[in-house]
């Protein structure tokens, strides 16, 4: 059975705590590789902070006019001897939406970037809907 191109998705709080994690691996047992995927996601948080600092400095110097919440590829990763990329999106509240995607999920990198940009933006909007719902008491497995 072929593995999906998106290995996992996560929502990370402003303090670095995992708010939501979902693996799409079809391994047996289901949670066998979740820890390694979570470690890969947490290792990319340093890259997120570095990019946020770089953007803040560019905005102060007037080199950039606005902040794009889509961060693109944060870092390459190696998982189960396959190349993967970690993509990121940061909301204004510093909530981070991260995804680990197999390298070459699309034929062209530009297509992959457009798909991931849209997907991460939609996931952020879903998180906002859930977080602002007064009757919802949690996002699930973390």
UniProtKB/TrEMBL annotation:
Signal peptide: none
Gene3D superfamilies: 3.30.450.70
PANTHER family the record matches: TRAFFICKING PROTEIN PARTICLE COMPLEX SUBUNIT 2
Full protein name: Trafficking protein particle complex subunit
Species in which this protein is naturally found: Durusdinium trenchii
Taxon lineage: Eukaryota, Sar, Alveolata, Dinophyceae, Suessiales
């Amino acid at each position: 059975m072929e593995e999906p191109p998106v290995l996992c998705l996560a929502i990370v709080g402003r303090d670095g705590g995992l708010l939501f994690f979902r693996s799409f691996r079809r391994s047996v047992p289901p949670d066998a590789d979740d820890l390694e995927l979570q470690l890969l996601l947490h290792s990319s948080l340093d890259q997120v902070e570095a990019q946020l600092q770089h953007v803040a400095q560019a905005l102060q110097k007037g080199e950039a006019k606005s902040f794009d919440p889509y961060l693109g590829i944060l870092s390459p990763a190696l998982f189960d001897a396959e190349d993967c990329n970690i993509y990121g999106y940061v909301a204004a509240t510093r909530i981070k939406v991260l995804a680990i995607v197999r390298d070459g999920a699309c034929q062209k990198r530009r297509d992959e970037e457009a798909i991931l940009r849209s997907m991460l933006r939609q996931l952020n909007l879903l998180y906002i809907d859930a977080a602002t719902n007064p009757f919802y008491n949690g996002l699930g497995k973390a």
